[in-house]
Each structure stands twice: as structure tokens, then as C-alpha cells.
């Protein structure tokens, strides 16, 4: 009986020691990360890059499940592939979500660091594409968003708050009729 109790006690302390060691490792990594990416350090790095003509880059991706059930990979940032090689551009491509509900389409774009009067949104003539562009002293954004259906440009309303742009548009009520083709 005593051996069983001793075994459980040692086992409990063994796991407690491992948990404590893991917590210490995580705390050390967080401390090093904070020191490395401190905002003042990042500003110094950006200034150093500018001296040498190096542009800072932003790159990311997200994976979502499309309406057909297949995964979709969407990239964002200012890194583009030109002839298979990565190139850093001045314009960043913001992360964008498109929501369709009833007779309305909502586009939400993350555009941090710009003033709202520096943001320009346009709807193409065919009503199927929303163009978002923003330019401030430090940042430039550009994105062409394909809309799931045609919209009425006069119904569009945009709100910018806390770095997030939300554009709501009403779908057009036009019904497209098919065109009959005679067979010869």
C-alpha cells in the first residue's frame, strides 16, 4: 500500500515539475520576443531599412472553406509574385471579407494606419467589382474585390472605424432574362 502511495506522489511531482518547466520556457520566449519586437526597436529597424533602400514587408495568408466545401487560400500584404519571384510593392493588399445576406452585400476590409479622408472606394461600371484604395504618409493599400452579384452603386454606404472599413451595398433588382438562340 505504501509503495503505491509513494509511486503516485512521485508521479504527481514529476508532472508538476514538467508543467513548471514548460511555463518557465514560455515566459522566457515571451520576454525575448517582447525585447526583439519592442515598438522602439521596430522603428529603428524601419529607419535603418530606409537608409539602405529596403522596404518593410507585410505578408500573410488565411485559409477558409469555400461554398463548394473546398479550402481557399487568400494571401494579403505587399509581397507579390512576379515571374515566380517575390517582389515587395509599396501598396499592401488588405485582408477582406465579403458577406452576402438577403438583398445586401457587405465588404469588410482591414486598413489600419490611415485617415478616413484618405480612403477611396469605387464600384465598377458593371457593378460587380469594388475597388478600395487608401494612401497615407506611411501606408498605401489597394484591393479589387469581386462581388458575388451586381450591386446598385447609389446605395453604397461606407464606415471606417478603428482601422476597419465596412462597405454595405444593395443588390440590384434586375432580373436577367435568358436570350434564345435559334438553331440553324
Commentary on this structure:
The chain has helices at 2-36, 39-51; strands at 59-65, 71-82, 85-93, 96-101, 104-110, 119-123, 129-135, 140-146, 157-161, 164-170. The protein has 184 residues and is an alpha+beta fold. The protein has a domain at 94-174: Sandwich (Immunoglobulin-like). The strands form two sheets. Strands 1-2-3-8-7-6 form a six-stranded mixed β-sheet, with no helix packed on it. Strands 4-5-10-9 form a four-stranded antiparallel β-sheet, with no helix packed on it. It is extended. The N and C termini lie far apart (97 Å). The mean pLDDT is 80. Pfam families: HSP20. One of its GO terms (biological process) is response to heat. Residues 91-184 form the CS domain. This is Heat shock protein Hsp20.
Secondary structure category: alpha+beta
| Shape by Cα distribution | extended
Number of E-type strands: 10
Discrete helix count: 2
The fraction of residues assigned to DSSP E strands is 35-45%
Sketch the major β-sheet.
Answer: 6 strands, mixed
The rounded Rg comes to 26 Å
Please state how the strands of the largest beta sheet are arranged side by side.
Answer: 1-2-3-8-7-6
Q: Which H/E pattern describes the elements?
A: HHEEEEEEEEEE
- Low-pLDDT segments, ≥5 res: none
CATH architecture of the domain at 94-174: Sandwich
Helix fraction by DSSP (H/I, runs of at least 4): 25-40%
Distance between the termini: 97 Å
Report the CATH topology name of the domain at 94-174. Immunoglobulin-like
CATH class of the domain at 94-174: Mainly Beta
Mean pLDDT: 80
Amino acid at each position: 500500500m505504501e509503495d503505491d502511495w509513494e509511486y503516485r506522489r512521485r508521479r504527481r511531482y514529476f508532472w508538476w515539475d514538467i508543467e513548471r518547466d514548460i511555463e518557465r520556457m514560455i515566459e522566457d520566449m515571451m520576454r525575448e520576443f517582447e525585447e526583439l519586437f519592442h515598438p522602439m526597436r521596430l522603428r529603428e529597424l524601419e529607419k535603418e531599412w530606409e537608409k539602405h533602400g529596403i522596404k518593410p514587408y507585410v505578408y500573410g495568408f488565411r485559409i477558409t472553406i469555400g461554398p463548394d466545401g473546398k479550402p481557399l487560400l487568400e494571401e494579403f500584404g505587399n509581397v507579390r509574385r512576379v515571374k515566380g519571384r517575390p517582389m515587395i510593392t509599396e501598396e499592401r493588399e488588405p485582408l477582406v471579407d465579403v458577406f452576402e445576406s438577403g438583398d445586401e452585400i457587405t465588404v469588410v476590409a482591414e486598413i489600419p494606419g490611415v485617415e478616413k479622408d484618405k480612403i477611396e472606394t469605387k464600384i465598377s461600371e458593371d457593378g460587380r467589382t469594388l475597388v478600395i484604395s487608401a494612401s497615407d504618409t506611411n501606408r498605401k493599400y489597394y484591393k479589387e474585390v469581386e462581388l458575388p452579384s451586381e450591386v446598385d452603386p447609389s446605395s453604397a454606404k461606407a464606415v471606417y472605424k478603428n482601422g476597419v472599413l465596412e462597405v454595405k451595398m444593395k443588390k440590384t433588382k434586375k432580373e436577367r432574362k435568358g436570350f434564345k438562340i435559334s438553331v440553324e
